[in-house]
Amino acid sequence: MAEQLLPSSLRGCGNQLVRHGCVQKGLGKMAKKLLTAIAGLAVALVLTSAARANTIDIAFQEAGVNGGAITTEASGSSSTNFAGAYGKFLVGLTGTGSPALSEPDLDTTGLLAFNYLGGAATLTIYVTETGLTSPTGHTSLLSEFNVSAFFPGTTSIKESTEYSLTNALYSGTQLATDTFTAAGSANFKTAVDITSTKFSETEVIVVKTTGFGAGAGSRGVELSRVPEPATLSLLGFGLSGLGVLGLRKKQQHQNG
Question: Which fold has domain 55-231?
Fold first, then answer.
């Protein structure tokens, strides 16, 4: 009867159960099955993550280049980047979304746009994340703008955020916008109603220059969900609990 309670890989050892060889053989079979199960779970998780990865697209627009049309230059799952020339500009940036970030976060980072051919020119940069499914209903989105470097000959840097309930690429309803004529930062909270099963977000950066050497560097444009009050309260409660626990341990140590 007791033998029936053992794992199948160890049954049949009988009195030999105490013998190292039998136990080792049985445990080896168990370990093999466990490793196989873990490997299968890992593959499933990878496939699930890939299936849920949103698409990030980067596009540029400049008068006289490709007929002035918005032109996609980079695309990838969860994250993509571009480093190279477009029109009169040398450009570098990275766009990152889900699952590298939690939905609906979208970050444009490491931006550098530099007019290297001279003459007045304006470059518009688009970074879009499509396929977003969360959050839904009434929520608030936080737009954070930051221009860290402003080169001579640069007229302005305009940064904007948009969202589209039709999951559109490079367009949507504006959430927030700000125009910089010097290095600086700003942030805005916007209440929205997400009523579709899939939606998109776009970050737009317009760099206006007067000639060679002009351009700007930006730590990024960030779009994220404003934490709900209940979430903040729960976080505060958790931190308070950790503080009380730490104080008790300190008192116990001193009393001991």
Answer: Jelly Rolls (2.60.120)
